[in-house]
Amino acid sequence: MSTSHLLLGILVTVIWGSNFSVIEIGLRDLDPFLITGLRFTFTALPLVFFLRRPRDVPMAFFVAYGVLFGVGLWWVVNLAMAKGLSPGLSSLVLQFSAFFTVVLSGLFFRERMGISQCVGMALAGGGLALVIGVTRGASTTLGIALVLVAALSWSACNMIVKRHKPKDMLAFVVWSSVFSAPVLFALTWLQHGTAPFMALLHGVAPAAAGSVLFQAYVTTIFGYKVWNDLMKTYPAAQVAPLSLIVPVSGIATSYLVFNEQFDAAVWLGVVAMLAGVAVFVLGARIRRRQRVMA
């Protein structure tokens, strides 16, 4: 992976980590079902009127990506957080998608991992397991199970991108959101009736509005445009582990914004995850340089 792409990937994962605290702020004023629908409404609008739908992706896969991404990933994450899963721990559990993505890529695309990548994944996975193990008091079993479902949905989205490699990734993200929003609003109505929609008529708090817009334009449009470009360009084993930076940013932001406290073992796990990502990303480069020098 080129240095510029690597830095872009790191920037996106830092943004994604902070996004969990942004979601928490929005959930204080908006229904978890509704806030997700609003997020994808603004992801689609107004850009959908200015961007042509990419013709290199069959319509069925637009629908599949939109539903998996909007409902399977973010609606499920918001539901888990609404049921009490903390922003920091939500960002951690979701990163199991890195492992799911690498496994699915091996199954469907026969992508292989090198020794350094295996070591890096093992180290980062051990750190992730340590953090989850010592923070059970801040979560519920249901919440963790929900976010694991979301992680699998994200991995399935990655497989769609790798399979079809859309040329215009911005248009792909925007047009797939067209299929996310209606399903999310239907789920809102089925669960809560018209009450959440009527509440919108009385106005939205500035913090909640800012949360929705950040999620739509920064996290989704910018973040997933960059991420999906990386996913279609490089093997999943080179890209997916970068997402393990997300919980580091998520924990730091949750501490700064909500004063979420963590034991020393959590920080040890964070260090292990960062070390694992470093080994994963840099190990192959170091070995290549050593061979050249030899």
Explain what the structure shows.
By secondary structure, the chain is mostly helical. The protein has one domain. The chain contains 13 helices and no strands. α1 (3-27) packs antiparallel against α10 (206-233) and α6 (115-134) packs antiparallel against α13. The longest helix has 30 residues, at 264-293. The chain is globular. It starts with a helix and ends with a helix.
Concise summary:
The protein is mainly alpha-helical and 294 residues long. It has helices at residues 3-27, 32-44, 59-82, 87-93, 97-109, 115-134, 141-164, 169-192, 195-200, 206-233, 236-239, 246-258, 264-293.
Features:
294 residues; mainly alpha
Please mark out the parts with pLDDT under 50 across 5 or more consecutive residues, or reply none: none
Order of secondary-structure elements: HHHHHHHHHHHHH
First and last CA, distance: 23 Å
| Total discrete domains | 1
Coarse morphology: globular
- How many beta-strand runs? 0
Give the integer mean of the pLDDT values: 83
**Structure classification:** mainly alpha
- Helix count, DSSP H or I runs of 4 or more residues: 13
Gyration radius, rounded: 19 Å
Strand content: under 5%
Strand count, sense and barrel status of the largest sheet are: none
Q: What fraction, in percent, of the residue positions are helical?
A: over 70%
